[in-house]
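Hello,

Our lab assistant flagged a job as stuck in the queue for most of the afternoon. It eventually completed. Since we weren't sure the result was trustworthy after the delay, we are filing this so someone can double-check. Below is the sequence as submitted and the structure that was eventually returned. Let us know if re-running is recommended.
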Amino acid sequence: MDNFARCLAFTLGSEGGFTNNPADPGNWTGGHVGAGELRGTNFGISAAAYPQLDIANLTAAVAGDIYRRDYWAPLQGDALPLPVALTAFDAAVNAGLRRSVLWLQQAAGVPADGVLGAQTLAAIKAANALALAREALTRRMDFYASLPGWTSFGLGWSRRVIALAGEISV
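-- returned structure --
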């Protein structure tokens, strides 16, 4: 299994199928609870990020194509060691590309601007991949704990990050 397929399998498993929770801002086309139309999330593809997409009828194959184009390619996933690629890809899907790169940069000790450039890639390649991925996960948990939705979604976010920590360690 190539790295993208492995990363996609974890993320799709974590995201699951169609949900339409009105308390989740990602389920709304306007990106905020009550803003726009409640269209849901499917395979992690949200109405907030893709307001014109027919979320309820999305297939896993189409979701995979979107993830490769809009998340994996900008993260330069093929250039990252697997623990880092898995951590960064899942974070990008769940919290956004810029935030995912910020956590990698903070973990790698380089200036954090949210742009995955040559300096960040060099620092990632020079680092211990597992240690860097774990530090990025720690920063992710710290961020989630600060969100107002923590009381509603924190348990699920925690389970996901713990499962990811186990996945990167194998």
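-- support follow-up --
The delay was a queue issue, not a problem with the job. The result is valid. The first strand starts at residue 41 and ends at 42. Residues 150-168 form the longest helix (19 residues).
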